[in-house]
Design brief:
Chain B: Pfam families: ABC_tran (PF00005). The complex is a heterodimer of chains A (275) and B (270). Chain A is mainly α. Chain A is built from 8 helices and no strands. Chain A has one domain. A 6-stranded mixed β-sheet of chain B has the order 6-7-8-3-9-10, with helices on both faces. A 4-stranded antiparallel β-sheet of chain B has the order 2-1-4-5, with helices on one face. In chain B, helix 3 packs across helix 4 and helix 4 packs across helix 5. Chain B is globular, with a radius of gyration of 21 Å. The chains are: A mainly alpha (275), B alpha/beta (270). The interface between A and B is medium-sized, with 13 and 20 residues.
Chain lengths: 275, 270
C-alpha cells in the first residue's frame, strides 16, 4: 500500500515537468508546421504562370468559385432581408427608418459580406479542396506526378490557391449586391420605406475607399488564409481515410477561427479610430 | 563500376521518426533482368522504391543508377534521370481528372515537343500493348482495378524508360488480370529490353517471373538468390516466407503476456 502511495506521489511530482515538456514539444511542432506551410505557400505561388497554368487556373475557378456561387448568393439574400427587418424595427422607434439603406449597406459591406462569405467558402470550397488534394495524395497521384517530372506544387496546388484568392473577393461582392437587394425587397417593397431615401441615404453614406475598399481588403485576406489552410491541410495530411476526414474537419475549424480572429484585428485597424 | 548494374544500393539507412525502416540494405539490379524485392507488408518496400526514385533521402548509404548517385544530383539532373525511369504505383495513381488517353499522353507532353499526331500514335501504340486501345476515352473512375494498372503501365512505358519499378503489381487482382499482368511484365521486359524491379509479397507470381530475388526483413536483406535456390533454401525464416507458413521465426502472435495470466486478471487493457 505504502509502495503504491509513494509511486503515485512520484508520478504527481513529475506531472508538471511532463506538462512543460509537452508544451515545449507542442510549440516546436507548431513552429515546424508553420514553417512548412510558409515554404509550401512560397514554392507554389512564386513563378511565372504558363499558358497551361492559366488553363488549369480557369478550371479551378469553376470548381472553387462557381460551385460556391449558389450558396453564397442565397445566404446573401436572406441576410440582407433579415438585416432590413431587424433594422427597421429599431430605426422606426426613432423615426429614422429612412436610414435603413445606410444601415443595411454598411453592415454588409464592412462586416457581414466578407465574414459570412468567407465562412461559407471555408465550409463549401475549403473542405472540398482539402479532401480532393488528400485523395490525390492517398492514391499516389502527387508522387507519380513528381516521378514523371512535374512539380505537383506548380501543377496541382498553385492553380487552386490562385483560384481561391480570386474567387472569394468576387463572391463577397456578389453577396453584398444580393444582400442590399434583399434589404430593398423587405424594407421598401414590404415595410414601405420610401424608395428614394433607401438608395440616396445609402449613396450618401457609403464611402468607396473606407467601406467598399476595406471590405474587399478583408475578403482578400480571408481568401488567402482560408485557401492556404485548405490546400496545405490536404497536402500535409496522413494519407488514410481517417487522415483525410480529420484534415477536412481541421480545415473548417482553423479557417473559421482564423476568419473571426482576423476580422477583429482588421476591423480594429480599419475602423478603430471612427468611434 | 560494373557496367552491367543499373541500380546499386549500398548500405542504405532510413528512418521514419523513431522507426528504423532500413539499416544497412545492399542490393544490385542488373540491366535487362527482372529483379524482385519481397518482404511482408510494412517492411518498407514502397519506401525503398521512393528512395530509388529520389523522392526520399536516406540517412546514410547511397543509391546509384547507371553510376549516378541519385541523392547527390541537382534537381534538374534528377528530373532528367527520372525520365529514364517509369514507376507503377500500387494504386495505379492515374490522374483522376484526365482521361485514359490524356494520362498516357501526360509524360509525352511534359518531356517532349512532339506534334499532336505523333503523340497520338505513341499513346495508341502503348495502349495497344496493354490491350486497352478501346478504352482511351474512359475516365479512370470507370476502369476496373486490373485495367487501371494496365493503363498505368502504358503511362509508365510512354517515354520508353530503361528502368521500370513496379509496386505490388498483383495486389487485389482477380486471377485473370493477375495472369494478364504477369504476362505483361514479362513481355515488356523481354520485348523492350527493360530492366524491371518488382516489389511484391505475392510469392508465386513473383517467383514465376523474377530472374533474381531479394527477401528483405527487419531493414536488411534476409536472403537473396534465384527463384530456384530460394525455393530450396533451408533457413527457417526464408522457408516460412517463401512457403507461406503462418507461424515460425516470424511469430503469428503479436507480443503478449501469458495467455492464462491475461485471462485471469480480467483487465481489458494492461
Ligand atoms: N508517409 C509516411 N509517414 C510515416 N510513416 C510512413 C509513411 N509511409 C510509410 N510509413 C511507414 O513506413 C513503414 C514502411 O512502409 P511501406 O514502405 O509502405 O511498406 P510496404 O510497402 O513494404 O508495405 C510502415 O511501417 C509505414 O507505416
Ligand atoms: Mg507498399
Amino acid at each position: 500500500m505504502s509502495h503504491e502511495h509513494a509511486r503515485r506521489r512520484g508520478a504527481s511530482r513529475r506531472q508538471p515537468v511532463r506538462q512543460i515538456m509537452a508544451l515545449g514539444r507542442g510549440t516546436l511542432d507548431m513552429i515546424d508546421a508553420l514553417g512548412r506551410a510558409g515554404l509550401f505557400l512560397m514554392l507554389s505561388c512564386l513563378g511565372i504562370p504558363s499558358r497551361e497554368g492559366i488553363r488549369l487556373w480557369l478550371r479551378q475557378m469553376h470548381f472553387v468559385g462557381v460551385m460556391s456561387l449558389a450558396i453564397v448568393l442565397v445566404s446573401g439574400l436572406f441576410i440582407g432581408m433579415v438585416l432590413a427587418l431587424q433594422g427597421y424595427t429599431i430605426l422606426v422607434d426613432f423615426g429614422a427608418e429612412d436610414a435603413l439603406g445606410q444601415m443595411v449597406a454598411l453592415s454588409l459591406l464592412r462586416e457581414l459580406a466578407p465574414v459570412v462569405s468567407a465562412l461559407l467558402f471555408a465550409g463549401r470550397a475549403g473542405s472540398a479542396l482539402t479532401a480532393e488534394i488528400g485523395l490525390m495524395k492517398a492514391t499516389e497521384q502527387l508522387t507519380s506526378m513528381e516521378m514523371i517530372g512535374v512539380d505537383p506544387l506548380r501543377r496541382v496546388i498553385a492553380p487552386r490557391l490562385w483560384a481561391g484568392f480570386v474567387s472569394l473577393p468576387l463572391l463577397t461582392i456578389g453577396f453584398s449586391v444580393v444582400g442590399i437587394w434583399g434589404g430593398y425587397l423587405v424594407g421598401v417593397e414590404w415595410l414601405g420605406v420610401f424608395e428614394g431615401s433607401y438608395w440616396s441615404n445609402m449613396q450618401g453614406s457609403v464611402g468607396f475607399v473606407a467601406d467598399i475598399g476595406n471590405g474587399l481588403i478583408k475578403s482578400l485576406v480571408f481568401a488567402m488564409v482560408v485557401t492556404w489552410i485548405a490546400v496545405f491541410q490536404g497536402y500535409d495530411l496522413i494519407p488514410t481515410s481517417e487522415g483525410i476526414s480529420r484534415a477536412t474537419t481541421r480545415t473548417v475549424v482553423y479557417s473559421s477561427l482564423a476568419i473571426l480572429g482576423l476580422d477583429f484585428v482588421l476591423t480594429a485597424m480599419m475602423f478603430g479610430e471612427i468611434g | 563500376m560494373d557496367d552491367s548494374l543499373l541500380v546499386d544500393v549500398e548500405g542504405l539507412h532510413f528512418s521514419r521518426g523513431e522507426k528504423e525502416i532500413f539499416r544497412g540494405l545492399d542490393l544490385q539490379v542488373p540491366r535487362g533482368k527482372i529483379t524482385a524485392i519481397m518482404g511482408p507488408s510494412g517492411t518498407g518496400k514502397t519506401t525503398l522504391l521512393k528512395l530509388i526514385g529520389g523522392q526520399l533521402y536516406p540517412d546514410a548509404g547511397r543509391v546509384r543508377i547507371a553510376g549516378q548517385d541519385v541523392h547527390r544530383l541537382p534537381r534538374r539532373t534528377l528530373f532528367r534521370l527520372r525520365r529514364r525511369m517509369g514507376m507503377l504505383f500500387q494504386s495505379g495513381a492515374l490522374f483522376s481528372d484526365l482521361s485514359v488517353y490524356e494520362n498516357v499522353a501526360f509524360p509525352l507532353r511534359v518531356h517532349t515537343d512532339l506534334p499532336e499526331a505523333m503523340i497520338r500514335d505513341i499513346v495508341l501504340m502503348k495502349l495497344e500493348a496493354v490491350g486497352l486501345r478501346g478504352a482511351r476515352a474512359l475516365m479512370p473512375s470507370e476502369l476496373s482495378g486490373g485495367m487501371l494498372r494496365r493503363v498505368a503501365l502504358a503511362r509508365a512505358i510512354a517515354l520508353d524508360p530503361e528502368l521500370i519499378l513496379y509496386d505490388e503489381p498483383f495486389v487485389g487482382q482477380d486471377p485473370i488480370s493477375m495472369g494478364v499482368l504477369v504476362q505483361l511484365i514479362k513481355t515488356v521486359n523481354q520485348a523492350l529490353g527493360l530492366t524491371a524491379v518488382v516489389v511484391s509479397h505475392d510469392i508465386k507470381e513473383t517467383l514465376s517471373i523474377a530472374d533474381y530475388v531479394y527477401v528483405i526483413s527487419d531493414g536488411q536483406v534476409m536472403a537473396h538468390g534465384t527463384p530456384a535456390t530460394l525455393n530450396v533454401d533451408q533457413d527457417d525464416r526464408v522457408r516460412q516466407f517463401i512457403h507461406g507458413e503462418p507461424d515460425g521465426p516470424v511469430p503469428f502472435h503479436y507480443p503478449a503476456p501469458d495467455y492464462f495470466t491475461d485471462i485471469m486478471t480480467g483487465r481489458a487493457s494492461s
